[in-house]
């Protein structure tokens, strides 16, 4: 488990990470989202003991990273996969890593096999493609068979096959009871991979919730209702608007035979329609995509917004997604 | 796709790591790139040429008879920069390509990481010094043409002292590199301390500037390895070089602990 307590990082007057308190639990894939400059990488670097927090602490299994006796055996990290000596071979890179933590050399060949780099293991890493770098980075993260894995943008530069490989890998790692903390900009990919979401904007925590709850609470999640008789649809609309004690319930009229109802459940709308004996041809939930829900949340905290852009404020045209 | 095999058998029980692991890791990194081999070759070349000319000039000019190892010891004024390059790139390369973050993930305790680099750079430089010294003696002896003395004990003592000096120069360089991070500024700083400043001080001359020069690592190392008793005993010369190396190490460690990687 990764524990953040009041984690704060300042650079002069700029607060990059502001008082983050959260737990990243084992047995799940926790997605870490936020606009560029939100503080994701800084947070990960503080967890890994690379950057010093200005205040607060980041613990792994209750201890700071630097206090781990064999850190590579406890935490696997993929940060900047290209950050290695271009003249060194992939195998020598991992060998140096293994020796630093008392890991036998045959484990190096094992992980190279796992990530599919066994054939190029003795070639200079400088000639690798971005996808090969990422695989080498994953090999390094897996080397010590750690309980905690931290991946910063792991699917960057991977082809569709590689993206799928990372998805299955992270899923398996979490299913084995490990803690998987992963950042990505690819919303569709994150929606497929993550169980839990941690979202930050301008260094502060915006959301820490399960994926299903996050999508359900999005304004883009709505109930679509359609019937053949305009009169009874109007009656239904009137009842939904007036009956509802909850001001969150909003009804949009798409046409005189079709409504989109937000802030309530498909069960409630169905019950009201039944009570009024309104004939329906369609009644269903339109789930928000992670991208829509995320855009709503972070619209105000985009660091480098294009002037005049309303990116995220109006997530339209609407896409319908199944969860 | 089942990608995670159960690696418990391959991995074994947690052992190793610590300082020994950190040293093994630095050693593996050092020799898995071409750079240190280049430094070794450059050192062999510089030492050969310098000691040959030193001895030949002593013979031609009928200089007083001197210990044969004076040739390699004097060559250190040039050869030391091979050691500087070797030690410096162990640090500055990692900052240039970002792999220092990997190093710190493997060995997160800053003092241990720095000590490992220091031990490997110092140890390699010491052994390299001995090899270069023996080569220098072998080349200088015939070139002296009788204008030198050969005593096994004397040669051994001088070469050991010279190698100790080179090891300390490597330590000083590692500390400076960790503090400054970039190759250009590290080389400039070390070159200024070891070569430029002594040249200027001796060039201007005067009692005060000579005293200042005697407190710099280059002249102190020279006094130590050549066995001078003036201006201070050889042991003091060693302590002066050691002091500079420790100072650079402490400054490097302080920066390493305070600054983000």
TrEMBL record, chain A:
Belongs to the ABC transporter superfamily. GO terms for molecular function: ATP binding; ATP hydrolysis activity. Pfam families: ABC_tran. Keywords: ATP-binding, Nucleotide-binding, Transport. Residues 2-227 form the ABC transporter domain. InterPro entries: AAA+_ATPase, ABC_transporter-like_ATP-bd, P-loop_NTPase. This is ABC-2 type transport system ATP-binding protein.
Automatic annotation (TrEMBL), chain B:
Keywords: Membrane, Transmembrane, Transmembrane helix. It holds the Pfam family ABC2_membrane_4. The chain crosses the membrane at residues 37-55, 75-93, 114-142, 162-180, 187-212, 232-256. This is ABC-2 type transport system permease protein. The lineage of its organism: Bacteria, Bacillati, Actinomycetota, Actinomycetes, Pseudonocardiales.
């Amino acid at each position: 488990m990764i524990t953040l307590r009041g984690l704060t990082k300042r650079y002069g007057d700029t607060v990059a990470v502001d008082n983050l308190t959260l737990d990243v639990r084992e047995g799940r894939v926790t997605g870490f989202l936020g606009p560029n400059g939100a503080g994701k990488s800084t947070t990960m670097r503080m967890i890994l003991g690379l950057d010093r927090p200005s205040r607060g602490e980041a613990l792994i299994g209750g201890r700071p990273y630097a206090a781990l006796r064999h850190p590579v055996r406890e935490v696997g990290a993929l940060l900047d996969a290209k950050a290695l000596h271009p003249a060194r071979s992939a195998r020598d890179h991992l060998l140096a890593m293994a020796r630093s933590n008392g890991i036998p050399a045959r484990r190096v060949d094992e992980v190279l096999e796992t990530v599919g780099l066994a054939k190029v293991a003795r070639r200079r890493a400088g000639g690798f493609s971005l996808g090969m770098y990422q695989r080498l980075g994953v090999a390094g993260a897996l080397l010590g068979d750690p309980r905690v894995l931290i991946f910063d943008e792991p699917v960057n530069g991977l082809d569709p096959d590689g993206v799928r490989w990372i998805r299955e890998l992270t899923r398996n790692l979490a299913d084995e009871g490990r803690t998987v903390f992963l950042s990505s900009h690819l919303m569709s990919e994150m929606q497929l991979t993550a169980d839990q979401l941690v979202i930050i904007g301008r260094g502060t925590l915006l959301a820490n919730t399960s994926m299903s709850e996050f999508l359900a609470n999005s304004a883009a999640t709505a109930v679509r209702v359609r019937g053949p008789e305009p009169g009874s649809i109007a009656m239904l609309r009137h009842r939904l608007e007036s009956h509802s004690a909850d001001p969150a319930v909003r009804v949009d009229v798409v046409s005189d035979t079709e409504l989109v109802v937000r802030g309530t459940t498909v069960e409630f709308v169905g019950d009201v329609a039944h009570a009024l004996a309104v004939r329906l041809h369609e009644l269903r939930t339109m789930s928000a995509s992670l991208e829509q829900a995320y855009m709503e949340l972070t619209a105000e905290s985009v660091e480098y917004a294009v002037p005049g852009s309303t990116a995220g404020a109006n997530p339209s045209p609407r896409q319908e997604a199944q969860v | 796709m089942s990608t995670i095999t159960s690696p418990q058998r391959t991995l074994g029980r947690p052992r190793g790591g610590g300082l020994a692991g950190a040293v093994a890791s630095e050693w593996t990194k050092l020799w898995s790139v071409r750079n240190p081999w280049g430094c070794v070759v450059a050192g062999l070349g510089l030492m050969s040429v310098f000691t040959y000319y030193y001895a030949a000039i002593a013979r031609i000019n009928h200089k007083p008879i001197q210990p044969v190892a004076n040739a390699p010891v004097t060559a250190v004024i040039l050869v030391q920069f091979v050691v500087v390059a070797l030690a410096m790139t162990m640090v500055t390369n990692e900052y240039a390509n970002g792999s220092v973050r990997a190093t710190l993930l493997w060995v997160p305790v800053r003092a241990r990481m720095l000590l490992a680099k220091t031990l490997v750079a110092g140890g390699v430089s010491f052994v390299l010094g001995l090899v270069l010294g023996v080569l220098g003696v072998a080349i200088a002896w015939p070139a002296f043409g009788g204008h030198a003395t050969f005593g096994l004990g004397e040669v051994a003592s001088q070469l050991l002292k010279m190698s100790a000096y080179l090891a300390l120069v490597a330590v000083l360089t590692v500390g400076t590199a960790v503090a400054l991070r970039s190759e250009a500024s590290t080389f400039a700083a070390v070159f200024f301390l070891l070569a430029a400043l002594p040249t200027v001080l001796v060039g201007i001359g005067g009692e005060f500037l000579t005293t200042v020069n005697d407190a710099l690592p280059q002249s102190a190392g020279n006094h130590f390895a050549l066995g001078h008793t003036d201006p201070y005993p050889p042991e003091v010369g060693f302590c002066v070089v050691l002091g500079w190396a420790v100072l650079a190490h402490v400054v490097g460690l302080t920066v390493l602990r305070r600054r983000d990687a």
